[in-house]
Write a structure and sequence with these properties.
This protein is α+β, with helices and mostly antiparallel strands and 211 residues long. The chain folds into 2 domains: 38 residues; 163 residues, L,D-transpeptidase catalytic domain-like, CATH 2.40.440.10. The protein has 3 helices and 12 strands. The protein has an 8-stranded mixed barrel with strand order 4-5-6-11-9-8-7-12. A hairpin with a 2-residue loop joins strand 8 and strand 9. The radius of gyration is 22 Å and the shape is globular.
C-alpha cells in the first residue's frame, strides 16, 4: 500500500473500496428498479410476463411527477393525446402511467366518470362496435374467461356514469408493445404491472376524467 502524506492508509483503502462498491452496485440498483416495477409476477394462479422496457420509451414507465391541475388527490386524470394517465397525489404530485388509447377518436370515452366496479382477472365480452371493427372478436361473442390471453389483462376498472356502465374500462393488455400508441378499441390499457398497481391504489367511487 502506498502511504500518502497526511492520509491514513486505512481511510484511503476504505475510500477506494466504497467507490468500488458504488460502481459495482449501480447496475444492480438499476436492474432492481426495473425488475421491481415490470418483472414477472405470479398472480391468482397465473404468470404475468415481464415487460422488456429496453425496446420501449422509458417515459412510459410508472413514475412520480409534479402536478399543477385542479383535480383532487385520489382522482384519476387521463390525457389521451399525451398517452398518459395520472393518479393525483397530495402536495402537488401525481403518479404517471403510460397508456394505450383508442385507435379512432370517435370511440374513445371523454369526460368524467367514476370507478363503479373493479375485477381481478376479469371476464371479457366484446361490444357490438368492437366486433364490427375487429371481426376476429366475433368468436368471443359469448365471452372469454379471465386469464393471460384475455385482452383485459389481470385487472379492470369499470367506468360508470349516472349509475350506468359506460362500457369503457381501464385495464391491462396482452400487447405491452402497444402502450403509448392509439390501437385499442377505445378503452384505456396499461402495462399489466401498472394496472395491478393502480387497482390496489384506487377504491370504487374514484373519479376519472378523460380529456
Amino acid at each position: 500500500m502506498i502511504k500518502h502524506p497526511g492520509k491514513s492508509p486505512v481511510r484511503t483503502e476504505l475510500s477506494v473500496m466504497s467507490r468500488r462498491s458504488v460502481i459495482i452496485g449501480l447496475p444492480l440498483l438499476a436492474a432492481g428498479c426495473v425488475t421491481s416495477n415490470y418483472g414477472s409476477i405470479s398472480d391468482g394462479g397465473h404468470t404475468i410476463n415481464a415487460v422488456d422496457m429496453t425496446s420501449l420509451d422509458s417515459g412510459l414507465m410508472r413514475t412520480e411527477v409534479a402536478w399543477s391541475g385542479k383535480e383532487k388527490p385520489g382522482s384519476i386524470f387521463v390525457n389521451v393525446p399525451q398517452r398518459r394517465l395520472y393518479l393525483i397525489q397530495a402536495g402537488g404530485r401525481a403518479l404517471r402511467y403510460g397508456v394505450g388509447v383508442g385507435r379512432a377518436e370517435g370511440v374513445t370515452f371523454r369526460g368524467t366518470a367514476t370507478v363503479g366496479r373493479k375485477e381481478k382477472w376479469p371476464h371479457w365480452t366484446p361490444t357490438a362496435n368492437m366486433m364490427a371493427a375487429i371481426p376476429m372478436y366475433r368468436s368471443y361473442s359469448g365471452g372469454m374467461p379471465g386469464g393471460p390471453s384475455n385482452p383485459l389483462g389481470p385487472r379492470a376498472l369499470y367506468l360508470y356514469r349516472g349509475g350506468k356502465d359506460t362500457l369503457f374500462r381501464l385495464h391491462g393488455t396482452t400487447e405491452p408493445e402497444t402502450i403509448g400508441t392509439a390501437v385499442s378499441s377505445g378503452c384505456i390499457r396499461l402495462f399489466n404491472q401498472d394496472i395491478i398497481d393502480l387497482y390496489d391504489r384506487v377504491p370504487i367511487g374514484t373519479q376519472v376524467t378523460v380529456v
